[in-house]
């Protein structure tokens, strides 16, 4: 299944993300999470993976997975690998 790029959704998502990460309680909220969390990153992403690894270390019981050959938009470029990781994660929760 392919989904076309939607610039309005992208812009709103980025705006919401920027507001959230600048919030004063971000780290304490993450540390208090009681639900399963999967941090999935691409090893060929132009952005570094260390921020996601740091967030993973804050969230108790979270899982960090790195798709070594995946770029930034891993769901677009490596959908089967993402699907496999998500299904594997859902099986353990």
Word description of this protein:
α3 links the parallel β1 and β2. The chain is globular. The protein has a single domain, classed as Rossmann fold. A two-stranded parallel sheet has the order 1-2. The longest helix is centred in the N-terminal third of the chain and has 15 residues, at 7-21. With 93 residues, the protein is mainly α. Helices cover 52% and strands 11% of the residues. The chain has helices at 7-21, 26-31, 50-58, 74-77, 79-92, and strands spanning 38-42, 63-67. The mean pLDDT is 92.
Brief characterization of the structure:
This protein is mainly alpha-helical and 93 residues long. 52% of the residues lie in helices and 11% in strands. The chain is globular and about 35 Å long.
Keywords:
single chain, 93 residues, mainly alpha, Rossmann fold, two-stranded parallel ribbon, 11% strand
Number of strands: 2
Strand order of the largest sheet: 1-2
Succession of helices and strands: HHEHEHH
The largest pleated sheet is described as: 2 strands, parallel
By CATH, the superfamily comes out as Alpha/Beta hydrolase fold, catalytic domain
Strand content: 5-15%
CATH topology call: Rossmann fold
Residue runs with pLDDT of under 50 for 5 or more positions? none
What CATH architecture label applies? 3-Layer(aba) Sandwich
> What would you call the shape?
globular
Average of per-residue pLDDT values: 92
Write down the CATH class.
Alpha Beta
Query: How many domains is the backbone divided into?
Result: 1
* Head-to-tail CA distance between termini: 26 Å
From the alpha-carbon coordinates, what is the Rg to the nearest angstrom? 14 Å
Structural class: mainly alpha
Please work out how many helical segments DSSP would assign.
5
What is the helical fraction, as a range of percent? 40-55%
